Every structure is written in structure tokens, then in C-alpha cells.
Amino acid sequence: MELQELLSKALAGETLAIARLISLVERRDPTAHEVMKHIYPHVGNAYYVGITGPPGAGKSTLVDRLTRTFCAEGFSVGIVAIDPSSPFSGGALLGDRIRMNVKKKPGWDIFFRSMSAGKTVGGLAETTREATRILDACGKQIIIIETVGVGQSELDIVSATDTVLVVLVPESGDSVQIMKAGLMEIADVFAVNKSDRSGADSMAESIANMLERRTTFRKSEWTPSVFMTAAMRNWGIEELYRGILSHREFLLKEDRLKKRRKTQIRAELLRLIEKELTRITWEHMSRNNNLDQLVEQIWARKKDPESAAREIAVQVERQLDLSQS
Amino acid sequence: MANNPEKQVCIFTKEQLDSIKTGYDDWFNNVLKDGDREEELAGKYFTHSGIPVKMVHTPADVSHIDYTEDIGYPGCAPYVRGVYPNMYRGRPFTVRQLAGLGAPEDCNLRIKYLLQHGANGVNILFDLPTIRGYNSDDAEAEGNVGHCGAAVDSIWDMDAYFKDIDLGTISTSIVTHLPSTSIVIPGMYFAVAEQRGTPKDKIAGTCQNDFIMETCVGSGPEILPPPVSFRLQCDVVQFVCQNYARFNPISYNGYNLREAGTNAVQEVAIAISNGIATAEELLKRGMNVDDFAPRMSFFWDLHNDFFEEIAKCRASRKVWYKIMKERFGAKKPKSMLMRFHVQTAGVTLPATEPLNNVARSALQGLAATFGGCQSLHIDSYDEAYSAPTEEAALISLRTQQIIQAETGVINTVDPLAGSYYLEYLTDEMVKRIFDYIKKIEDMGGLVTAVENGWLHREIANYNLKYQKKIENGEMKVVGVNYFRAEEGSAREIEVFEYPETYTRQKAKLDRLRKERSEQKVKESLKILADKCHTDENLYPYTLEAVKNLVTLGEIEELFREQFGLWTFPLIN
Amino acid sequence: MTRPIKVVMAKLGLDIHWRGVYLVSQFLRDAGMDVVYIGNKFPEQIVEAVMQEDADVVGMSTLGGNHHSLGLKTVRLLKEGGLDNVKVFMGGVIPPKHVPALLEGGVNRVFLPDTPMQTIIDVVNGSVSV
Q1: Is the pLDDT of residue C71 over 90?
Q2: What is the separation, in whole angstroms, between the first and last Cα of chain B?
Q3: What does the pLDDT look like over A233-242, one tens digit per residue?
Q4: How far apart are CA B122 and CA B99, in angstroms?
Q5: Over residues B341-367, mean pLDDT
Q6: CB within 8 Å: C36 and A97
Q7: Three-state DSSP class for residue C100
Q8: Is residue B403's pLDDT more than 90?
Q9: pLDDT value at position B572?
Q10: What is the mean pLDDT of residues A185-197?
Q11: Quick check: ipTM above 0.90?
Q12: Alpha-carbon gap, residue B410 to B413, rounded angstroms
């Protein structure tokens, strides 16, 4: 299929075309940049929900249940679920889809995509953002991102979504561990899942305590709510769903959503600029092969490292000026 | 080991043992060649489950064993040597062969064929839709109706299955793997017997009824949560114990656990852990241990490692005895007897050069006999492809008869007892089974171990390890990776196909739906749905439903709706 | 930059034996592929997964005798969905005499019992031009 045809089919909501677009981006196909350029004007209509939490918290099952609720309320849903890659082979066993056991009702519109994390560490795959934007542009109204969930600090989710749901279980450990993982900073909504097990109440209580303490020294307008769920038994899903929506309503007031997204754009832009500059610098250096020379000069104490770095920066700067004029 | 060393009944005196040990050292250092000695010191040999195997075992390896307390006599505690004093002299193991293919009417013919050829019990198998609780005309059943077992949708099918067969004279193993169907399908059998006027106390047999099968060993598109499956399992045990004196309501299915991927220790330990969990639940329900323990039976898989498998059988009896006596305070001797059915290991039967499987199965069947099984099914050589053909089934039956009638091994009880190697293995096995049971208990019990995916991971890890050994040739499979067969030497196997089963079952279901009282159906389903949310035993209500011509699929769909579905925790 | 070969692995319909399909999934992962393991699924769900995941390969395992009915139905639905490029493999207990009909129906290769894992890995690798 020609790219134009693919794009128009995808934007019209055709599943196969959407899937292929995501693959182009995943593969860093030469057309990937072109794809995102065409997609971007259509982005921004969806609401992005991030789901993160430690392994075994039941994130996938919760995603399945929330998806049902969103669908029943008439939303179309796009899901991207990330699983870890094997550090040895680079391959991955992507198992989140197994839990999407929805007996789909007619009219339900769900697009589920599994991604392997590759070498990234922030909880998302390198092209997760692009994939969700494609889903957004192609008409999915709710975008759900489920992070890797291997227990590392998976904080990238906060820069890619509007509402972050942190899923914990009664056994998730003491408050110190949760604080350390940085989850308190990023959570907009908490779910204590598997709350049919003992210890759920005290888990919920300690989260609430932490939140209270937090607000004493860091003023925040939004106090995350804590929900008790047992996704397997369909307990508390409706309440959690409403909890997510009320965070959305909060954001929609006083331009908060706009502010949050602009902050995200700023961060992403800076990150991308940095990446571009790094690329240009590398290209410049490999063209002139001056890295080795500089290393020798520094080794011989003819130059100090900082001066050497500045020298390169000046060269690159000059080159940029040239290319502009 | 005896509590009182003074009274320990040792086979050898201390002096004799010392001299045996000196003799061994002498042999080891002076008779063995250097290379062999080094190899032995490197400790390279293990049983399949990982128990170290020496080049030669001596009385020194079993010197801590007290004959009377640890081994004893057949029919006596701790039952290592067998559950009956005279064992096979009194009654040879029951020759139980499979019958299950196509429609119930086809099975009826196969059952009659087997009974005429000397079988005294039958195992009846079901097709996948029946096993997983769907009707033949449900969308999910497409392509599986009548394959690998018979379709049973309603009580009418059960009636056809046993047409012209007196239910009061045979012992029937109803191979319902899952508790959710064990609470329905044996009920159809009971109801048919009732309609024919067979007295309840004449109804003999077994159903499998194991929640591990439902939630761990077998995967499926729609699975009930483990606590629910466990509850149904206990409902079946309780109801049957209270109503059918000669029907065993549960067969703890070590077999399929083993086939799915566990070793001999895990097989027995997990099955017994389920026995412990059931016992605790039934005690909570107010039953007395001696009212249900005698009715529990087990189902082992006899695999390739000949001596380890025999040791497993002997050890499992001892472990069960100790648990029932010491932990649950059982009083009746029958409560402490572990009776088990054996099937030879289907997983060891490759499709390559299938006739070799006759030899494999015969050896496994022989091990089962040495292990003192109560009944035996020898797999047919074509297991890897289909439910057995008539020819293959007959060879299996004949293999059992050859063991019983020609080899002489059943003339004396537990003939391998006293083998230093076997007693050493049996003793090790007992210890390792207890350790594994403790591991499960420390985790919060078996239901938890399944719910959190631990058991699934144990199985997956075992399989990966085992497969890697096959891939690299460390584990030898004759004809497959060892003395590999020439390309094209695979023998074409006749496969039963029953394309007409679907049409027949569909027609029967259509007629059933026309003839039954819809009001009665609705009523019985409504009551059952309500009872799901109480602590009451559900069996009386499923029994009532099947009598009112409610189908298997309807009851199972009700369970799925009322209890919700659970996801197989394979990847976490 | 490419992405790993993406494989959707499914148990066909009601079949209960998960050992083989899961083993193959693990071996393919260890050979560097991205394996989407979807458990027991019916043809419509398998095709949906293959489409949304834009998989290169789909593997279906069955020991339950539904290789003809559900297996070929899956192949048909893949074609109808415009997924002609996807390579289809089947494995499990399938009588050798049924294999030709499956190949004719569009299955690329059938792996019978006793097939070494390395053979499966090689065939899958060789089938996809990345």
C-alpha cells in the first residue's frame, strides 16, 4: 500500500492500516517521520490514561475490566501494553493480550497493541508515544498505556498521559518502598487491587496517610483518590472508572489539561532537540574523525577535556550557521 | 526412623554394618578403576527428579531405616508395601481401559467390546467441549465434537452411553477432569441409575474432579477462579460421600500434572496437598475425617525412570498414611490407605516409530505392578495421535494380562522390597515429598499457589529445562534424538473420525429442547444461580437440573456468569 | 533499524494442552523474536490479534483435533482480512495424512510431534524477510 493510501485508510479508522502505521514507526522506517508529520494535526482528541505498578499487581486484568467499562459507556479504546525484552536475546514474551478476554459486544471498538520495551528503562518502549498518537489520530477516544511493570522506576508514563493510575496490591510493601519508587509523585489515582485479600485496608490507609503528609509540604490542588478493586471479581471497577473521569473533569477546568500537555510538549521538545543536536554533533565528529585526535591531545595534556568539548561545539555551531545561510 | 534407637529393628547389626562399610570402602578404593571412581566422585547420576544415584547401593545406604516402622507389612502401617495384606493374590489390579470416542452410541459398543474381552472396569472419556463444559452445538465446540472422547450434552447421552449395560455390575471411571463438570456429569450417571432402579449402594466408580486440572494443568478460553473450582471440588466430595457409598468422588490427578510438566516428587506432593486442602475444607463443613478420607483416591503417572517410579508409589502411600493419621487424627485404617489408579505416561510416547511404545508402556505397566497400584491403564501405542484404535487398545489390554498371568510378578507382594537402591529411593522420596508439601503450605496452601501463578511457573520451568535436555541430547528418546529413525519411517496411524457426531448431537439437542419443560429448566437454573452465592452444596441443585433435562452447557454457562472468569497466570 | 520478528502464538479453541505452545513461545523469544502469547483463542480472535499486532507470523497449536475446522477457518479469515503476507504455522498432534490438506488450505508448515525446536526456529526465521 502506498503511504498516502495507508494514511487515509488509517485516519478513516481501518484496523489493518492503523496496525501497519504503528509498525512503520516501530521499525524506524524511512517513512516514519513522514507518518508522524501527517498524523500530528489529527492528534489531541483522545484522553490518555497511564497504568503502572509493580509486577503481579494485576494491571492487565484491570486494563481489561476498565476497557469493558469505557466501551460500555460508548468510548472507543486504544491500548498499548509494554512488556520487558530479554536482555540476552532481545526477544520478548508479550503476555498482556492473554488477559483481554472480553467477549466483545457488537459496536465495541478496541485496538490492542503489545510492544516490547527493548533497551529502554522508563517503563515505555521507544515508540510508545508515537503509537498512541496514531491511535489518537485514528479515532480512538480513550488511550490506555500499560507500562512494563517489572518494578523499576517507570516514571516516563507521567510524560505521556493525562491521568496516571498507580496499581498496588495489599502485599505491595511499606510506604517507604512506594515513596522510593517515586509512585507518589506521579499518581493521580490509586487502585489497591486484589483487595479481597487481607491487608487491603491498611494498604489503602497508608497511602492516604502518605498523601496527607505530602500535601503539608507540597501544595497540590489535586489529592489523588484511592480505590479498592478486585479486578478478577469485578469489584470496584465502576468506582475506579468514575475516579479516572473525575480527575479528567478536574483537568478540564481552568485549563489544567492544556497546561499539563504543554508541559509534556516542552519536555518532549527539549528531549528531541537534545537528540537532534547529539545526532548532528556525532555526524560532524565522525565526518572529521576528530574524536581520536582530541583524545590524544587530552592524553598528552595539550588540552583539557572541557576546552576540547567547547571547540567541537563551536565547530558545530558554525556549521549550523552555514547551513542556515 | 524409630523414635527409640534402642528398639530400632535393624536389618543388620552395628558390627555387620561396620564391616559392610569397610568392605564398600575397599571395593571403592581397590576394585573400581580410577576413571570409574572419579566419575562416581563427580556425582553425575541422578534419577529423573534429581535424587543422586550411586554406582552401587549397599545396606549402609539404608541403615537408618527401621524395618517395622518405616517399611512394615502389606496391609499394615505405614503401607509402604501395599494397601492389602495379600495384594494381588486376593484380587489382581483392575484392568481399566479407555472407552470414549464419537457419540455415546459409539462408546456403548466399545464398552461392550472391552467388557467381553475381560475388562472389569471402564474409563469413559469425553470430547473437549464436554470436558470444558460446552454443548455440542455451542459455537466454542466447533471442530471438536466427538474427537478424543465422547460428547455428552444431557442425561439422554449418558443413558445411551450405558445402553443395555447394568450399572450395578461395573465400575466406571467417569473422566471428568474439572470440578465444574464433575458436579454435573456423574450426576447424569446417578440419575440414569436412579431411573433404571439401580440401588445407590451398587453404583461403583470414580470421577476425577480436581481443581488443579481446571485451573492449572489444562488451559482454556474461559476458566473459573481457583477458589470457585476448589469449592465445587469439595461440594462433589461431600455430596457423593453422603450419598453413594461405592463411588469415589475424587481422584487427585497427579497424572495430568505430571504430563503437563512436573517430576515424580512434585506430582505426588501437589496431589497430596490438594488432599490436605480438601480435608481441611470438609472438616470446616462439619464432616468427620473418617467419613471422607476412605473415599479419596489418587491417580499416578508411571513414567520412564523405572525404580524411581516404583519408589514413588511406595513413598506416596507412606506420606498419605502419616498425614491422615498424624495430622488429621484419622481412626479408621481405611482412611489412611492410599489407593491409586495408574496410567502409563502418554508424554513418553513419541509419534516416531510408534510400535516402540508397546515396549515403553509394558515396562511402565510393570513398574506400576511393582508399585502396588489398584488399577491400571496401559497407554496404547497410538496415544500420540488419537484415542486408541481397536487393535492398539487390545494390545494394551493384552499387555496387562501378560503381566498378570505370565510373568509371575503378582505372586508375591512387593517383590522388590529390600533392594538397597529401592529402599533408599523410597526413603528419599518420602522426605522430598514432605518438603515440597511444606513449601506449598508456607505459601498459604495450594489454592493460593495456583491463584498467584506459582504452580504454573513451576510447570513452565520444568518443561523448559526438560526440553533443553532433549534438544541437547542429555535426555535420550530412542528413535527421536537417540538412534534417530530414518526420515519417513513414521508409521501412518489410523485415526478415528466422527464427522457425523456433531449432526447427531445437534439433532438430539434440538429434540431435547422441544420436548423438555422450559419452565422446569428455567426454575432449576434460577435456583442454581441463587445457590451459587450461598455456602450450600450445589450438587443437589445440579442433579435436579440434569433430571429436568438442563444441558451441561447451560449449567456451565451459568457458573461462568455467576462466578466470573479467571485468567491463566502464565506470564506475569 | 528493524524490529524483531513478531509472532502471535495461540492455542486453538478449547484444546487444553499448553506445554508445547508455551515452550515454542519461550524458544522463539530466546531466539530473539517478539512473541505475543494469546492463550486459548478462537479463529476470529486470533485474526484480530494478528491484525492489530501486525504480526509477521502466527503459530497455532492444537492437540484436540480441530486443526482442520478451526485451523483452516483461521487461514481463510486471515486472507479475507487482507493478511495474506502473514506466515501461518501449525503444530501439535496432527495426523500426517491430514497435513497435505492443511498445506493446500494455506498453512505454510505443520510441525508434527518430536520436531526439534531448532527446526521451528530456523523455519520461522527463514520465512520472514525483515
Answers
A1: yes
A2: 43
A3: 788 999 999 9
A4: 7
A5: 93
A6: yes
A7: helix
A8: yes
A9: 45
A10: 90
A11: yes
A12: 7
CA A229 vs. chain centroid, Å, equals 23
Query: If you measure CA to CA, which chain C residue comes closest to A22?
Result: C54
pLDDT reported for residue A163: 97
Strands of the A142-146 sheet, one edge to the other = A110-116, A77-83, A142-146, A47-52, A163-168, A189-192, A225-228
3-state class of B354 per DSSP? coil
Tell me the three cell numbers of residue A30. 524511512
Cβ–Cβ under 8 Å, residues A157 and A145: yes
Residues of C in contact with A91 (CB under 8 A): 4, 28-35
How confident is the prediction for chain B on average, in pLDDT? 91
Pick from C129, C63, C118: which is nearest to C94 by CA? C63
Phi-psi sector, B168: left (phi>0), alpha (psi -120 to 50), beta: alpha
- Mutation pick from A82, A86, A97, A101 vs chain B, by most beta carbons of B within 10 Å, is A101
Q: What is the predicted pLDDT for the residue at B464?
A: 94
Cell representation of residue B337: 490407605
Closest Cα partner for A204 from A169, A165, A239?
A: A169
Q: Does residue A218 register a pLDDT over 70? A: no
Interface of B with A (CB under 8 A): 221-222, 225, 452-453, 564-568, 570-572
Judge: A19–C51 Cβ closer than 8 Å, yes or no: yes
Closest chain C residue to B222, measured at CA? C40
- Report the Cα–Cα distance between both ends of chain A, in Å, rounded: 39
Cβ contact B142–C66 (<8 Å): yes
Nearest to C95 among B141, B261, B495 (CB): B495
E strands of B381-444, at which residues?
none
Helix axes A305-324, A256-288, angle to 10 degrees: 100
Whether C29 and A89 lie within 8 Å, measured CB to CB: yes
Residue A78 Cα distances to A156, A186, A265, B166, angstroms = 19, 22, 21, 60
Q: What is the 3-state secondary structure (H, E, C) of B437-479?
A: HHHHHHCCCHHHHHHCCHHHHHHHHHHHHHHHHHHCCCCCCEC
The packing angle between helices B254-261 and B454-471, to 10°, is: 50
Q: Which residues of B touch C66 (CB under 8 A)?
A: 128, 142-144, 147
The C-alpha angle B544, B237, B338, rounded to 5 degrees, equals 150
Higher pLDDT, B221 or B309: B309
Per residue in B85-114, pLDDT (tens digit) is: 999 998 888 776 665 566 788 788 888 887
The kind and range of the H/E element at B299 are: strand B296-302
pTM attached to this predicted model: 0.91
Nearest residue on chain B to C112, alpha-carbon basis = B351
Tell whether C103 lies on the interface with B, counting CB pairs under 8 A: no
Contacting chains of B (3 CB pairs or more, <8 Å) are A, C
Compute φ and ψ for A19, nearest 5 degrees: -60, -40
- Distance in Å from the first CA to the final CA of chain C: 10
Q: What is the mean pLDDT of residues B382-394?
A: 76
Tell me whether A32 touches chain C (CB under 8 Å): no
The three-state secondary structure class of B416 is coil
Contact check, Cβ <8 Å, A98/B566: no
Question: What is the distance between the alpha carbons of residues A275 and B459, in angstroms, rounded to a whole number?
Answer: 45
> How far, in Å, CA of B134 to CA of B147, rounded?
14
Please, which chains are in contact with A (at least 3 CB pairs closer than 8 A)?
B, C
What is the distance between the alpha carbons of residues B396 and B388, in angstroms, rounded to a whole number?
A: 10
Best of A98, A148, A150, A196 to disrupt the B interface (most B CBs within 10 Å) is: A98
Give the span between the Cα atoms of B189 and B165, in whole angstroms: 12
Average pLDDT over residues A86-91: 91
- Contact A97/C35, CB-based, under 8 Å? no
Q: Scan for cell 442454581, then name that residue.
A: B528
Question: Is there a contact between B511 and C117 (Cβ–Cβ < 8 Å)?
Answer: no
CB contact under 8 A, B225 and A93: no
3-class DSSP assignment, residue B367: helix
